[in-house]
Specification:
10 helices; 49% helix; globular
Length: 226
């Protein structure tokens, strides 16, 4: 049995870091011996053509991913227990399976020793919030249930805007008029992640990508002696 587990999580933005932090708090509530850290980036970026170089870090997840995977893997070599890295990102309007294949190929080409799990939210991480109706309306009791009921889980629909149509007075169009900068919209996303994340039931979510993340956590932690 493993006595300790360390999980390093990489996410593309601040709101995702808040949400995954809430999920991890709930997941580890009755578990001991598991440590984790979440690093957020300033956007997704793109996978570089040259994955062997040591270019200046851009603070974008995919652009910097080869460097961080090598760095964390080297740092975790001497950890006294099991280690794993989780990379969580939005697929946006990309082909999810195609993106996953490219990421797995990148991992194989890096030839690092630490196991890495890629968890891709369809279309955006806000789909995880929309996957728990009870948590959503506990956090926002004045939210528009009629709008929520039209949502098809994990659909490519402009997920964060759809969430705004449910919880923001006047909907996403008014929000975009009032919050004209990416920073302001980011604060709105962080607020939703914080509020809904408080009530999230990690074992009852309609999002397949959320459940995939929990399943991979279970696989990493199954050897832990509690």
């Amino acid at each position: 049995m493993q006595e300790n587990i360390y999980i390093q999580i990489l996410f593309e933005d601040a709101s995702g870091k808040i949400l995954v932090g809430k999920v991890m708090e709930k997941y580890l509530e009755n578990k001991k011996g598991i440590l984790y850290d979440i690093k957020s980036f300033k956007g997704m970026g793109r996978i570089p053509k040259n994955i062997t170089g040591s270019a200046i870090k851009t603070k974008s997840l995919l652009t910097d991913l080869p460097q961080y995977l090598r760095g964390f893997s080297n740092a975790l070599k001497h950890y006294p227990g099991k280690t794993a890295i989780f990379v969580i990102l939005d697929c946006d309007n990309k082909d999810c399976m195609g993106l996953k294949r490219v990421l797995v190929e990148l991992y194989n080409n890096l030839q690092i020793s630490t196991e890495v799990h890629f968890c891709i939210a369809i279309e955006e991480i806000e789909a995880w919030l929309l996957g728990d109706e009870e948590a959503l309306f506990q956090a926002f009791p004045e939210g528009k249930k009629s709008v929520f009921q039209k949502y098809k889980q994990d659909s490519i629909i402009g997920t964060w805007e759809y969430l705004a149509d449910i919880v923001y007075k006047g909907g996403s169009l008014k929000l975009k008029k009032e919050m004209t900068s990416y920073f302001e919209i980011g604060k709105f996303k962080c607020g939703c992640a914080e509020k809904i994340g408080e009530f999230l039931n990690i074992h009852n979510n309609r999002s397949k990508s959320f459940n995939y993340f929990i399943k991979k956590l279970d696989l990493v932690c199954e050897e832990l002696h509690i």
